[in-house]
Write a structure and sequence with these properties.
The chain is α/β, with parallel strands linked by helices. The protein has four helices and 15 strands. Strands 5, 6, 7, 10, 11, 12, 13, 14 and 15 form a nine-stranded mixed β-sheet that branches. It has a two-stranded antiparallel ribbon with strand order 1-2. A hairpin with a 6-residue loop joins strand 1 and strand 2. The longest helix has 13 residues. It is globular. The termini are far apart.
Length: 284
């Protein structure tokens, strides 16, 4: 298998194409029963591999349009309820308690924070922070969805909940090409959602970013290896939104995904800090 890379001189951007790797995985996935966004079998992102089972059925939303009513530009300030939170020159990430903050690698210069509305809620908001010197600046925010049953600190395959924690972001991929992606990107039809799913889910995996939960870094997002074992689930991704909860992944609009693919830079060691309000802000 050949991996080819293209570097643009004079810029920090790079695109790493792993089409050949993706094609080989497509054959593996066709022969092996796998899992992605939260269950067993060979189905959707979040514990199941793409192609057999929807992450959520009965959705009334559509790809790229979140139904989350939260206003991402006016998050609650815990010290002054109702007041907008500060967004610049932050000594630490807002809403993130000591327990998770101390797990953020010192080298991380980019952080996504997914703030869930509640432990059993599928609605959340995603914030992008950039670190300059010793402080963080919030640069973007978007409505998002998480697992349709909410969140868990002990994710298990099939529980339909998103795992709480701090995870690195190392690899991306999807059905569609992303020539401006900075993260290593696998362009492959193996990501295609099953046409037996509702049409609202067909484009969920046009672009995905692997959340490094129970996976091997440096491999395509749909690589089947699970270092912690099958029971701990896998295929937890950032992917396109279909308007409702997922099987364990985090979903955002197409425009948000394209922005993240352009901005998340391996040189900045990006991470995602995710959880419901209570667990996200836990002091210990």
């Amino acid at each position: 298998m050949r991996i080819s890379g293209t570097l643009r001189a004079g810029t920090a951007r790079r695109t790493i194409s792993r089409t050949t790797v993706g094609a080989a995985l497509a054959t593996v996935l066709a022969l092996t029963t796998l899992t992605s966004c939260g269950t067993t079998g060979s189905g959707s992102s979040g514990d199941k591999a793409p192609g057999t089972e929807p992450a959520q059925t009965g959705s009334t939303g559509s790809t790229g349009n979140s139904a989350n009513p939260a206003n991402p530009e006016s998050p609650e300030n815990p010290e002054n309820p109702g007041a907008p939170a500060a967004t610049q020159n932050l000594e630490r990430l807002p809403d993130v308690g000591t327990a998770l903050h101390r797990r953020i690698p010192a080298a991380a210069r980019q952080a996504l924070v997914v703030r869930g509305e509640g432990e059993n809620s599928a609605n959340s908001t995603l914030y992008l922070y950039e670190k300059h010197g010793a402080t963080w600046d919030r640069t973007r925010s978007w409505p998002a969805h998480n697992g349709k049953r909410g969140w868990t600190t002990d994710h298990r395959e099939g529980d339909k909940r998103s795992p709480v924690g701090v995870f690195t972001l190392s690899d991306a991929g999807g059905v569609l090409a992303a020539p401006d992606a900075r993260l290593p990107y696998t362009h492959s039809p193996a990501f295609q959602a099953s046409r037996s799913w509702p049409k609202t889910h067909w484009h969920d995996f046009d672009h995905v970013i692997a959340i490094d939960y129970n996976r091997v870094k440096g491999t395509p997002p749909n690589d089947p290896n699970r270092p912690q074992g099958q029971s701990k689930g896998g295929y937890i991704w950032l992917h396109l939104d279909h308007g409702s909860g997922t099987s364990g992944c985090v979903s955002v609009s197409e425009s948000a995904m394209r922005y993240l693919l352009r901005e998340l830079d391996p040189k900045s060691h990006p991470v995602i800090v995710m959880g419901d309000k209570r667990n996200l802000g836990s002091p210990a």
